[in-house]
Amino acid sequence: MRLLLCLILLSSTVFSQSPGVPVYPEGRGSGSQAALLKKAHQLREAGKLLPMTKASEQLSRTSCELTLPAAETKPLSSRERWQRARQAHIRVGHLYLCEECEKWHLDLSGGYAITADGAVATCGHVLPAPPKMREGFLLAATDDDEVLPVLEILAVSRGTDCAILRVQAETPLTPLPLGLEVTPGDPLWCFSDPSGKRGYYSEGIVSRFVKRPFLRKKEAEGLPKGTELPRPVWLETTLDWAPGSSGSAVIDAAGNCVGHVSEIQPVLEDPPPNAGKKRPTFTPGTYIVFHQAITASEVMKLVKKKP
After folding, report:
1. Bridge partners of 130?
2. What CATH number does the domain located at 32-216+230-305 have?
3. How far apart are CA 245 and CA 250, in angstroms?
4. Predicted confidence (pLDDT) per residue in 178-231, tens digit
5. Domain ranges within the chain, ordered by starting residue
6. pLDDT digits over 87-124, tens only?
7. Residue 166, Cα to own-chain centre: how many angstroms?
8. Contact 163, 153 (CB under 8 A)
9. Cβ(258)–Cβ(235) below 8 Å
10. 61 and 153 in contact (C-beta within 8 Å)?
């Protein structure tokens, strides 16, 4: 009887997900990061990765010529939408040596394909070199852990937290059309890797659109003093994301990308009077967390149609 019960439990575990649905390994010894590092080193040794010394020179590019796919109008099924989001998801980041050790580090954020021939969009703040980097390379990877060499940075707008780069892939990428028709109350979905938790897929709605009267420090960093830039339009949503999700696509019901993950703004509880003296261990609670995405219209401003 016990043997029969074990076989039933084992069977339910093995076939708990549909064919083609990944099961992500987690925890120490999972091997996922080690496998990516090995592939990245093979490309580095073959001279196929873009050095950060060269990539940094390309951060001043402000536009590029692309032919983007037209926005879709037919809603996808829930499974089709997840599959489209996962296939288009391209992680972008760095393979680098820091100033404090001799180990190579791999730090990846989100991104998404916007053309089949290798154009990938992400956040502008994802591309600059990590702090204390002494040698490094820019690279990308699919959700299936295929490491993709970055060929060049095509366009960047730090003020609107947008960037487009070109990667080299063995097969055509699955691009997301950019969508502009979205309104508060519309349902949205996001496929990302928050805090290193691979393949997290969440659902929410559009809460509102906002525009700030100023640039924040990270948005203005590296810009000439006195530079005047258009203020970006932010799409606030009830979706879930965290550090590591930056640059991941936010999609609508038809699988169009209507924006990408950019910021998180938690509103914390104010400490009581004299909290530092009477309650030195006071930890503020969180009232609400605002999740802010850069709209697809800001990405489109980097693109000039091919003549």
Report:
1. none
2. 2.40.10.120
3. 11
4. 999 999 999 999 999 999 999 999 999 999 999 887 565 555 555 555 555 667
5. 32-216+230-305
6. 999 999 999 999 989 999 999 999 999 999 999 999 99
7. 15
8. yes
9. yes
10. yes
